């Protein structure tokens, strides 16, 4: 009888061991790119709740280990300078192997529809980028890899997200985020290292849903003015997109973030600047590192009779006071009749120019479009100097009606302008004593002031007069 009980116990033990599993998050999988020259986190779960887990990469002989705690485990593994392909090994009661691993530079790309928009023409809303067939034919970069995060929402932070790493080939690239692809291409060509993109975006989403919920509700102003649209198929409430599409990535080492969003927050533009501060801080808090965050100013679009879009662009311009940020200006690549402009290459390239200059210390005379520095009103004229205007400015400033002056009566009139070196000089016969200047401060945001890098200036105004509301 004792022998029978002992045999039964041994069989049960073997059966339990056979069904035990070591589980990895899906972002740790074949074809991934790990951040170079750092300690990356490798983590997962095991049903053998307190076993020893060992991890090593084929790039050296170092092995790191840890004991699982209630089924969870994590180690930090040093990565060398760029290279590959490598294999990553995980061993406990079973052994796992991740193949075709490269080491290089990893960036997170996020936002709403203009970040989601793919290279190829896939719908009426997403018509493909300019010359998309030619772009796809050239998209043969096996050392660029994309991890697309599935679009879903969650009430609480999630540990994992569905997704696979995809190698960049002409066949695979059609659904890649166009902006992220052009960004990755420029980094790859200039740095000559593998590039990994974690792509997590969702069309039509407001910024609040990408922020940790506690960061919103603890701020009385943001909590009062947050956008919440009930009954929609996409997340709008604070934290819903963050929980499902950002939180699962927080252990994955990244170099920085690129962001294209804003159209969905035009209605509460007043809080967009502090909202972006909260978003950036909440993400940096999750990764425990002050990474660079480069974002895109919303592109020109007619917006019917709405009057708020230029104020959202202004809020984005103001967000440049957040540390380690930069902005890709897009008022020369928009389409008045399409909120998803097709010319995405300059957008990705301008974000890459910021990264190459500020993150990788590659020399650029002007890594961003001109933004106003000082404004002086003197003898009936406005004199504007600009940052990012080294080498002078050019432009057909009198071919646009978007440059306007106002006096104390707050009535704006079209003005005449000229550029001398890097100074914009503006005057109007109808405004003898100007006190306010607006340049491109309308829905189309047209600004024909260009620096030596060929990047246009941001729309701006010098006044802080309140918006006169116009109904849609």
From TrEMBL:
Gene3D superfamilies per UniProt: SGNH hydrolase (3.40.50.1110)
GO terms classed as biological process: carbohydrate metabolic process
Keyword terms, alphabetized: Hydrolase, Signal
InterPro entries (UniProt xref): SASA, SGNH_hydro_sf, SIAE
Record's keyword annotation contains RNA-binding: no
Record bears the keyword Phosphoprotein: no
SUPFAM superfamilies registered for this protein in UniProt: SGNH hydrolase (SSF52266)
Protein name in UniProt: Sialate O-acetylesterase domain-containing protein
Protein species of origin: Leeuwenhoekiella nanhaiensis
